[in-house]
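User: Hey, my collaborator sent me this sequence without any context and asked if I could get a structure. I don't really work with proteins. Can you help?
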Amino acid sequence: MTDAPVVADLSHERTRAHQRAWSWYDWANSAYVTTTGTVLFAPYLTAVAERAACPDLADGARCTEMLSVLGVPIAVGSLASYTITAATIISALALLFVGAIADRVARPTLLMGGIAWVGSLAAMLMFFLTGTNWQLGVALIIIGNLCLGASTVVYDALLIRVADPDDRDKVSSQGWALGYLGGGLLLAINLVVLTVYESLGLTYEMAIRLSLFSAGLWWAVFTLIPVLGLRKIRGTTAVQVDRSAGVLGGSLRQLVTTLRELRHYPVTLTFLLAYLFFNDGIQTVIASSSLYGTRELGFEASQMIITILVVQFVAFGGALLFGRAAQRFGAKQVVLVGIALWTAVVAFAFFVPAGAFVIWLVCAVCIGIVLGGTQALSRSMYSQLIPRGKESEFFSLYQAMERGTSWFGTLLFGLIYQFAGSYRLAIISVVIFFAIGGLLLTKVDMRRGIREAGNAQPAVV
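Assistant: No problem. I've predicted the 3D structure and written it out in structure-token form, which is a compact way to encode the shape of the chain:
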């Protein structure tokens, strides 16, 4: 293990004003995650692809033709899942370099904003996804998801800059809660547009395209708040950083060093493996829920938006509830309870009858309770296990390792549908990821991991 770097004084950065500004990036990007990533993109891309593969398809019928993607036959119903899989794999490779660079740039907040604005532009360009041009949708969602992940690496690392160890569960949970509130607010506005589109002089397709555009615009505008509010944060938490090799060359060299050093932090590595699996289950449910609801259970897009609104606003309270519970019982125990609840919810969703919207909403309430809490507390737990001066770099591992297998879930979902023709069988397969992740998390000794990383011990872990 290499010598720990000299640590900078962060007392002037750990203020309530900085914490509030930091939290607004959850508000900014959650609109894209909910409106685009969770609700509208997968069903709309599928509809565009159906027009390309089956131009004479009758209303309500299912397209059985195949699309040719680089010479490989792809079922229309699997295209969205495969696209998310491709975006995830690309992100897993790219994010490793983003973290190494972010720890060496003079203004990490500006880097976060620049990446976010590229992603928001891709999201706004989805307005032009129409006709049979499904290829445009594939390209834009890959760019948008890559930029979302890259900007989140820098954002998550800034949690360490703005919050003391004892405050991170609370600050992280408040950020997630604000994100669910913001994402839910824009989704509610889009629900109104999709409900009364005719009175607004719009077609249904135009209403969806405007909703996709609004998510990108929201992301771009509200990113200004953290960029301006955290503009005085400079450099890294380590006083001494070798910049002689330049940002790019030094970042690549440091990345190799960090990957080698990771074996000296076995608790951190075990946590990463656990998170990689149980978060894979969470991301697969998020990415596939609208497809499952519309295609398997027969719900309209407006009903799916109501579903996600329920999840969003319940998750606001759920994130705050989990944050308070972590202060009393410790984040690890609360996350383990959350994983058990996730498993039960997925099993429950398997048995929801087609068209049973009220029962489906019960499932949504259960998801909302555990969704924000498990993700927020996972972020704050991991922040305790990171060596000082390498925040972005280690959070890039957090994001990249999550994406390193999170494509397993969407890939498995797509494969099961392609070969079995059942979204029910596809959704129940997610349980295995929660089981493996929960088992690995029980092996994580947080006190030991915090000590090995050289960080201060919080009162409750």
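In plain terms: The chain has one domain: 16-54+68-232+250-452. You can pass these tokens on to your collaborator as they are.
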